[in-house]
Amino acid sequence: MATQTARRKTNSSANDRKANGRKASDRKANDSTVNDSTKQRFEQVADRTEQSIELTAERVREVNERIVDTGRRTGEAYLRTYERTLKSAADFHEEAGKASPFEWVTTLTKAQADFTREVAESYAAAGRELVKS
Q1: Does pTM top 0.70 for this prediction?
Q2: Does some domain include residue 26?
Q3: pLDDT bracket for residue 118 (50, 70, 90)
Q4: pLDDT at residue 109 is higher than 60
Q5: End-to-end CA distance of the chain
Q6: Is 10 part of any domain?
Q7: Burial class (CB in 10 A: 0-12, 13-18, 19+), 123
Q8: Domain total in the chain
Q9: Does some domain include residue 12?
Q10: Does any domain span residue 94?
Q11: In this model, does residue 14 exceed pLDDT 60?
């Protein structure tokens, strides 16, 4: 009985080795198929990710261009408004000086108005140069 049990164990071990050998080779074939399939999926995901990144980068560029353009237009509008406001103030000072009965007041307010206009024009011109670049 001990001999039969030993033979069964030996046969069982041999059968297990054969089955394990087949399983190992089957596993290698399956691993190869799985690896190829996994590689293909990985490449597809990588391609889609790359395309998505490129599209996102393009959208970001477009948004940045719009932001810069809007900032430029806003800056130009601000400069125009500032220049008009200073020129209006200068015109008001000059008109107020003309209403004075004293010539020196008229001369002083005209000089101040001219100076204000020149400063407004210079400031606006310098600002426009900055906005262009």
Answers
A1: no
A2: yes
A3: very high
A4: yes
A5: 101
A6: no
A7: middle
A8: 1
A9: no
A10: yes
A11: no
